[in-house]
Amino acid sequence: GGGLLCRDCVLLGDLKAGDYAEVSVAAAEARSRLDKALGAAVERVRELREGQERVASAIPAVHEAYVSVVGAVQGKAEAMEISVRGRRDAWARKAEQEREASVLGLMRHCESLDQLRRAVSNAV
User: Fold this and answer.
1) Do residues 10 and 25 lie in contact, with contact meaning Cβ atoms separated by under 8 Å?
2) Rounded to an integer, what distance in angstroms lies between the CA atom of residue 95 and that of residue 82?
3) Structure pTM?
4) pLDDT beyond 90 at 45
């Protein structure tokens, strides 16, 4: 048994001024509130740890997905570069063939003109 303690003095909550309780009752109520608060804090810490573990376990998967996407994009870029290079080379070969054909055509034309000039010279 003991003395009386003002409940407001130990901040027990929504109690009116002048509402007194025995020290043992006030201590029990305070301990109960602290136990609830501690339980809630422990639960929150557990939730935070679980969240941290989920994030930590997701990081490798996210990294793997990122590497996979980057690899795929690089692969497509390389394929496009090879394709463009191939087309460019094909266009260059075609242009070279057309140039050679044009030069050959001009040379034949010049030969024909030279033959015509000689024929005209011989005829005159």
Assistant:
1) no
2) 20
3) 0.40
4) yes
Instruction: Specify the residue for token string 């501690």.
Output: 38
Write down the residue that tokens 């309780």 correspond to. 21
**CA separation for the pair 21, 7 (Å, rounded):** 6
| Contact residues for 6 (Cβ-Cβ < 8 A; gap 6+) | 17, 18, 19, 20
Q: Say which residue, 21 or 86, is predicted with more confidence.
A: 86
Most distant pair of Cα atoms in the chain: their distance: 153
d(CA 10, CA 117): 127
Cβ 23 vs Cβ 4: under 8 Å: yes
3-state secondary structure of 22: strand
Query: Which DSSP state fits 17?
Result: T
